Prior knowledge:
- The protein is built from twelve helices and five strands.
- It is α/β, with parallel strands linked by helices.
- The longest helix has 25 residues, at 261-285.
- 50% of the residues lie in helices and 12% in strands.
- It is elongated, with a radius of gyration of 22 Å.
Amino acid sequence: MTNPYVWNAVDPDLCYGRDSLLDDLCSGLAESPRYSFGLAGGRRIGKTTLLRRVQRDLRSRLKEWRDGGVLVIPIYVDGLTLPRPLAEHDLWEVLFRELQSALSDSSSDLIEPDYDTFKSAVSSLFRDLEQQPRVIVMFDEVEPMVVCEWADAFLSHWRALLSNTPGLSEYFTAVFAGARELDALRRDIGSPLKDVLEWRSLRCLTYEDACRLMQEPIQQQWERPFLEYVYRETGGHPMLLQYVMQRVCQHWPAAMRQLKLEQLVQETVERFARERGWQFGEWWAR
């Protein structure tokens, strides 16, 4: 049995239980009417997996949209890989480089651009396009951005870019994904993005979707008591489900001669508590 479960890696193929949300994101971001989204969810609940799946699905349809006269440009920005200390111009530079790479063979740098410089440069890129652009920016892990002193100005600029900049707003959609800090933006009545985003929350998987995750990737049907036991131990948390299933696949079926599946799961749960339990304490504190 090939083991597809790697609990500490992102695999868009293991995006389970998000079908409806995936459809909303792909259609809203790339088609008309256009929508932008705020995506809130706890640590390791699957935000990055979902965004990488959105990115892949969008790319798979680029030709279809291009044939219809729309040039879709997905841009994924990982907040955890941005430079430290982070400056607002770093973000505008990253976005401009990605756009320039997608639209032009030439290359030119924007030196510490501000929002106005970015708008002017992007307008120049769009000026001679034969197709209508649709730029989809996916900000994953926004915490490093929203804790900076310039965060409110940056988010206000994005509010303008998404909803109130004629000549550009019709070409941009975005996703802002994060944990507690993004949920706070949703609840803050003064947040620049509060009323321009469609807000969605990621939660643990239902029992039915957890069963799919435990069975479909390995084309293995488990007995109901085993499925219920794993679901009860993990609460349907995608990372914990993969952690358990990774170890189950490593030891099954050879280990079944010595111990029951439930015993293997129990040993795995105890191992996680012993070796990785600190993560939950850190997540709770944050």
